[in-house]
Amino acid sequence: MKRNFTLTPYLMCLLLIGTLCVPTVEVFSADVLDPDLVLYFDYEDFDGDTVVEKSRNGYDGKIDGDVTQSDDGKFGKAGKFASGGFLDLDGSTVEAEDIPTEGMSIVAWINVESVTDMAIFNARAGDNTWLVHPEARGDGNYRWLNRSPGGTTIFDIRGGENKANEWIHYAGTFSRAEGLAVLYINGENVGEEAARVGTPIAGDWGQGARVGRNIDDNRPFTGLMDDFNLWKRGLTEEEVNDIMNDGLGASLTAVEARGKLATTWSRLKAN
């Protein structure tokens, strides 16, 4: 569910005054964030029946069922998913330029209640293609998969040891240019696969996109989730470990990547 931002003249004046009164290092604008960051849920802000999305793209997650805020997060708060609850992102309304096709990375801290099939994120294209499966699996491992239009599998990695009732860092990355997908668990490479085909990832979320449950209402995520982020490029191992250790920190902002101003997400969360 994408937010629409409208500034009245009054609000514009307040924003200008506030900007002039705050030191430059503390000012945040959309161009500070890495443009490849599509979704970011830190679960610090719930607004009625939505969880506020922090990438500045405005794709807030509409709560469907039982998703509440927990104080037991890896970084501050966390989302607590129970009884099939999930976040609905209204996938058919996501802008085409925000849908990953040339690469994708999905990163999150998860703390599952049991070892069973659980979807961290799921999206389905208009042609019925299940285009992504980042999962904790009931057979005791984790899964990372992307598909091309028409349902052709680009890669399907399964590795690591699925554990319940402890925080685990999940990161799946894929770069079409490099032709390589990697699954990292707790920052370690537990499986990689060369792309089976050279085609892009399916480019629409026409039948929906969700955090915490498949589009067909299967594989519900049950437990805690924190610092979920989705990218439209393949992150490096160094970036994965930076996010794991520090959350979305200065090294992953667009400005910092170009060696300019060091502005951190931790400041954003603190303010």
Fold and architecture overview:
The protein has 271 residues and is mainly beta. The chain has one domain: Sandwich (Jelly Rolls). It is built from four helices and 17 strands. The chain has helices at residues 9-21, 237-246, 254-257, 265-270, and strands at residues 37-41, 46-47, 50-51, 61-70, 78-88, 103-112, 118-119, 121-124, 130-132, 135-136, 142-147, 153-159, 168-175, 180-185, 188-194, 209-211, 223-231. Strands 1, 2, 3, 4, 5, 6, 8, 9, 13, 14, 15, 16 and 17 form a 13-stranded antiparallel β-sheet that branches. Strands 7-10-11-12 form a four-stranded antiparallel β-sheet, with no helix packed on it. The longest helix has 13 residues, at 9-21. It is globular. Mean pLDDT is 86; it is low at 19-32 and 249-271.
Can you tell me the CATH topology?
Jelly Rolls
Largest sheet: 13 strands, antiparallel
CATH class: Mainly Beta
In oligomeric terms, what are we looking at? single chain
Structural class: mainly beta
What count of domains describes the coordinates? 1
Number of helices: 4
Tell me the Rg in angstroms.
18 Å
The fraction of residues assigned to DSSP E strands is: 35-45%
Helix content: 10-25%
Q: Please trace the helix and strand order, writing H or E for each element.
A: HEEEEEEEEEEEEEEEEEHHH
CATH architecture: Sandwich
Secondary structure: number of strands: 17
Query: Residue ranges: pLDDT <50 for 5 or more in a row?
Result: 19-32, 249-271
Task: Report the average pLDDT across residues.
Answer: 86
